[in-house]
UniProtKB/TrEMBL annotation:
Gene3D superfamilies from the UniProt entry: Immunoglobulins (2.60.40.10)
Provenance organism: Oreochromis niloticus
Pfam families recorded: Ig_3
Protein name: Ig-like domain-containing protein
InterPro entries per record: Ig-like_dom, Ig-like_dom_sf, Ig-like_fold, Ig_Fc_receptor, Ig_sub
Gene Ontology biological-process annotations: cell surface receptor signaling pathway; immune response
Domain Ig-like: 100-192
Amino acid sequence: MEETSLLCLLFLISLLSCTTNQARLTVSPSSSQFFEGDFVLLICEEDDSSAGWTLRRNTSKQQRNQCGDGWGTSANLSCDIGYIVERDSGVYWCESREGPISNMVNLTVTGGSVILQSPVLPVMEGDDVTLLCKTKTTPSNLPAAFYKDGSLIRKQPTGHMTIQHVSRSDEGLYKCDISGHGESPSSWITVTGTLTTTTLPPTSALPPHSFSLHRVFRVVLHLVVFCPYLISTLLMVSLYRHRAKGNYLHPSDSPTQQQGLDYKNNDVTTEHHL
């Protein structure tokens, strides 16, 4: 009975270890930079609605603040910001009440006149990526210069640049400049392989404290995944030792009882000789 209970417990732990709720945060319009006054819609695309996903953010003024708590309007698994402002710049993610979190996206809001429209989500190796340098009040086909990690890549007469067949070497911090209008903020572009992974931008591209918080979340997630396997291993070892002890030391064959039987046999033998 005890062995059956332990085996059932092992099965349940293994099942829980393989079952994870996941969500993916998307942004509409799909961009990492916005002008003040733009409308932005954030959506938690989830696999399990029962997980209770909540959209949260870190900014320079607030930490882990959820949608509807002084910013945005929450509706089911979405959050809309009708009039985004500079203080809304920060890191956004979906968080389950059970602990797991989604990918993180870094949004930058500027009061300036130039932004760089670049992918807010990681891009796949081999894909083509188009960057658009645009102003708030003029057409988006003005000549622009594009920079990566502070170095000039090229100048484009139409204000947009396409990187064909991106690779990991294209990953970095991008910005653009339109003569007479100004320079955009910088945004990090992540390039990923066939497996979808989230690469965190460098610390300089994130609001204060967000980088350390993300590392804490990653440690917690690793512990959540690792602990069930550790518990399963310990239970299996315990079960094995319990069964081994039962095989080698049966209660009826304890040393004390065996010694008592030897004494009785000696007494019987002695009486027979007398």
